[in-house]
Amino acid sequence: MTRSVRVQVRISGGTASQIAESVRERVEQGDLRAGEALPSVRALAEQLGVNRNTVNAAYRQLTQAGVVVTRGRGGTRVADRAPVAQEGFAAGTVLRDIGTGNPDPERIPDIADALTSLAGRPVLYGEPVIDPDLELWAHEWLGEAIDPALDRELTITSGAADAVDRLLSQALTRDDAVALEDPCFLASLNTVRLGGYRPVPVPVDAEGMTVAGLDAALDAGVRAVVCTPRAQNPTGASLSAARAAALRAVLADHPYVLVIEDDHFSMLSTRPYHSLIGPGHRRWALVRSVSKFLGPDMCLAVTASDPETADRLAQRLSPGTTWVSHLLQRLALAQLTDVRVTAQISGAAAHYAARNAAFAGRLAARGIDCRVGDGLNLWLTLPAPARDVTEQLMRRGWLARTGAEFQLADDDAARHLRLTVHDLDDTAADQLADDLAAAVHAARVGAESKVG
After folding, report:
1. Domain named HTH gntR-type: which ranges (predicted)?
2. Which among 64, 85, 79, 248 is positioned nearest to 172, based on CA atoms?
3. Tens digits of per-residue pLDDT, 162-212?
4. Hey, which of 37, 190, 260, 361 has its CA 20 to 30 A from 304?
């Protein structure tokens, strides 16, 4: 008896709830493993002697509970509970990690001086979620990127990922579709997947999210769009003025689709800000965090949004539940209004841009083309399979990250690397460029030998 037939026999039930519970038990007992296919709706309906709609309803319940995932023609499969990819250093490796996505710790301002300015009265329950002084400053900071015709209110959250998570949860239910850039920022991708929403890929090119891709996602019924208008992670792409205008035109017919802009690089960006949010859009949010320039441990982001979204978001952040510390807010404000700190941030922005451009030049001198975007990383298109290249790099002492971790749908990810190289000195950068060229050559030879 084959595996698929055995599984069909084990699933039982006459109602949607009974069938869903039976599948749950099979998963919990290990009879159904992660990635394993469930019977088709037709096959299981015939097996159990029920209507197809009953099986459809059961599978919908399982999808909403995160037990299974639907993959179109790939069928319905048991959800993979394996740990999702995260930013940061790889634990337990002796290799030089060039896939961290981290800012340079030497470029993060020292908080010692700012800490001395935090004396003030205690903040008690029932007070506003956002510190009044930070709110006043942030209105000007975010206002420069928002169409003046839009009414807006501010909310504070524990970082950009927290803001995106709460924005989606206040607007969506499980299995709702969300448009994501492809390739995608890991935090946004993980938030959507773990929240039980359906990611719909929108391709990204040199000018950012594509018009055709967004149009197709809207036709597919997405209820939210998450976009990084500049320094898109991992590609480094930034929206051009023309592309942003074209995207706004597409969104004009969908004013109630929630548009979330994550301007994570903000004060470090070397590119102008072009928004997807038009003057008539009804549901929107712009999120700016401080983690890239004040440090990842400064878990704080400010969100500007339409009043209804702001009200729903604020209710989820009321004091006594998930309050963002006013001490942390005051510390961030003290740094962001210190001319010495802002000068250091400007210096860091120049450093990241210069080091990335210099490394791209090193690769070009070795016959490897690399487009320089904005942000902390470089997105490298390879002439050989990325997995083979990373294996060759490991033999030479480097730990790199393939583009497949960031990709939703495009098989071309098999030929991408995301590199974090801004913290390498000239000697290490030269060595990596040499080793990368050698790794690409070895991977190409290996691939050609397999074909031959």
Report:
1. 13-81
2. 64
3. 999 999 999 998 778 999 999 999 899 889 888 878 899 999 999 999 999
4. 190
User: What is the topology classification, in CATH, of domain 3-78?
Assistant: Arc Repressor Mutant, subunit A (1.10.10)
Question: % helix / strand / coil in the chain, to the nearest 5?
Answer: 45, 15, 40
Q: How far apart are CA 431 and CA 408, in angstroms?
A: 32
Q: Which token pair is 217?
A: 């996602």
The three-class DSSP label of residue 261 is strand
Of the candidates 50, 446, 335, the one whose C-alpha atom is nearest the C-alpha of residue 58 is: 50
Residue spans per domain, the chain: 3-78, 96-101+341-451, 122-336
Alpha-carbon distance of 277 to 323, in angstroms, equals: 28
Q: Is the Cα dihedral 248, 253, 255, 261 positive or negative?
A: negative
Strands 398-399 and 96-97: parallel
**Ramachandran class of 105: left when φ > 0, alpha when ψ lies in -120 to 50, beta otherwise:** alpha
Summarize pLDDT for 135-162 with one digit per residue, the tens. Answer: 999 999 999 999 999 999 999 999 999 9
Is residue 153 within 8 Å of residue 285, measured between CB atoms? no
DSSP helix/strand/coil, 166: helix
- Is the dihedral angle over the CA atoms 241, 247, 250, 253 positive or is it negative? negative
Token pair 């016959």 is found at: 367
**Residues 388, 443: Cα–Cα separation, whole Å:** 5
For 122-336, give the CATH class: alpha beta
Beta-bridge partner residues of 380: 417
Question: What amino acid occupies position 202?
Answer: V
Q: What CATH number should be reported for the domain whose range is 96-101+341-451?
A: 3.90.1150.10
